[in-house]
Specification:
- The chain is α/β, with parallel strands linked by helices.
- The chain has two domains: about 5-220, P-loop containing nucleotide triphosphate hydrolases (Rossmann fold), CATH 3.40.50; about 225-300, 2-Layer Sandwich (Alpha-Beta Plaits).
- It has eleven helices and 14 strands.
- About 35% of the residues are buried.
- Bound molecules: adenosine-5'-triphosphate (ATP) and magnesium ion (MG).
- Adenosine-5'-triphosphate binds next to α1.
Length: about 300
Amino acid sequence: MDTSVLQVSDLTKQIKHTQIIKGVSFDIKQGEILGFLGPNGSGKTTTLRMIVGLSKPTSGDVTICGYSLKKDFVKAMSNVGCIIEGPDLYDYMSGYKNLEMLGSMSKGVTKEDIDDAVTLVGMENRIHDKVSVYSMGMKQRIGLAQALIHKPKLLILDEPTNGLDPQGIHEFREIVKNLAREKGISVLISSHLISEVQLMCDRVSIINNGTIIRNASINDVLSTGEVIWTLDDPVKAQSILKTRFNIESSIEAHDLKAIVDVEKLSDINKTLVKSGFELTYVENKKQTLEELFLMLTKKHKI
Ligand SMILES: Nc1ncnc2c1ncn2[C@@H]1O[C@H](COP(=O)(O)OP(=O)(O)OP(=O)(O)O)[C@@H](O)[C@H]1O
Ligand SMILES: [Mg+2]
């Protein structure tokens, strides 16, 4: 059985003559937190808006808890809670009144559901204060409570920690991790902050220029590094990397360079030696997620 809570399949978006999203695919399993990482203007918000039905894809589809957005929009969306473009709150009302009002507009939301959401975001003590006196972090927590009152299986958050101070970021991160761990909620969270993704997420999808350039677990990404081979025929070795291992590489000053999963390195080296190359030096630079992100995205600066 497919346990994906969210499946994004070959999503594209064309606005006027520009292809902004160029075939984005990824999925999220139950209780998993996926970081949607990309530089400014890479297409994160555009993709998330399509996933929550705020914008129509040019092609492709989104399936949420088995319901296609195209065919079963209402059922699909009943499983989603989101904060996109900041929480929408009335300043002159209390946090609680804001939640009550939203609850009255959604079918089947009880007072208990509202209280549960308030507890989940840790706002019990300030919930009856007016929103106008809330800090940015408190407003963001109320936004999260709004997204949770109908008990969604999937939470979609577009750069939710923008504007929060380090303490606020830490608290928000712990709340989200707890929702996934304790309640089994799946979370899709976009960010341009590598450290945030590294600390919060199980997996990462890196988007650049409207294209997913890496879908992997955080651990796999962290075991990826840049490898430099000094050998006698880099051009021929480059073609072996491509045909045998499907690895793209570049040649710089007669050295061959590629980004490689370090677990595959021993196999690659054996193959090169067996193929008759004279391998004089292999350097394996293990990278942080930040270094990898910068390297993967540097070719397409906006
Ligand atoms: N309505 C629109 N019309 C034309 N271009 C648009 C429209 N919406 C987005 N774009 C373009 O699509 C690209 C992706 O924008 P998007 O807002 O999705 O990026 P992002 O990854 O969310 O960036 P940020 O990190 O700055 O929030 C940008 O080049 C943007 O200018
Ligand atoms: Mg954005």
